Amino acid sequence: MDNDAIRDMFASLGEVTIKRMFGGKGIYHQGKILALEVSGDILLKADAQSAPAFADAGASQWIYTGKNKPVAMPYWSIPDAALDDPDDLAKWVALAWAAALRAKK
Questions:
Q1: Which residues contact 64 (CB under 8 A, 6 or more apart)?
Q2: Banded pLDDT at 104 (limits 50, 70, 90)
């Protein structure tokens, strides 16, 4: 996904910074990471407080294969309904931003 499309997705927050990382991209707002682009998909940050909402909306958690076992990361796909509705997408972006603010440094 190109950087202009990513910026459009996060426009509800204001300016985002996009940095290349691990073959994908990290998406930051005010210096805090709130999303990743991995293999063309945007994954939003979630935590114990917000992950249940992502799961209930049918989103899937990013899990990769680590050393002999799966590793669940605190990033979730964007629920399908939000991909066609900018107002709904803004709600999920806000949840990701809230999780980023709660994250320990």
A1: 70, 71, 73
A2: confident
User: Strands 70-77 and 61-65, how do they pair?
Assistant: antiparallel
Distance CA 69, CA 59 (A): 22
pLDDT for residue 105: 61
CB 45 within 8 A of CB 96: yes
Residue type (1 letter), 79: P
Which phi and psi angles does 9 have, rounded to 5°?
-65, -30
pLDDT, tens digit, for every residue of 41-91?
999 999 999 999 999 999 999 998 888 899 999 999 999 999 999 999 999
Count CA atoms within 13 Å of residue 79 on its CB side.
Answer: 22
Concatenated DSSP letters of 16-59: -EEEEETTEEEEEETTEEEEEEETTEEEEE--TTTHHHHHHTT-
The pTM of the full predicted model, rounded to 2 decimals, is: 0.93
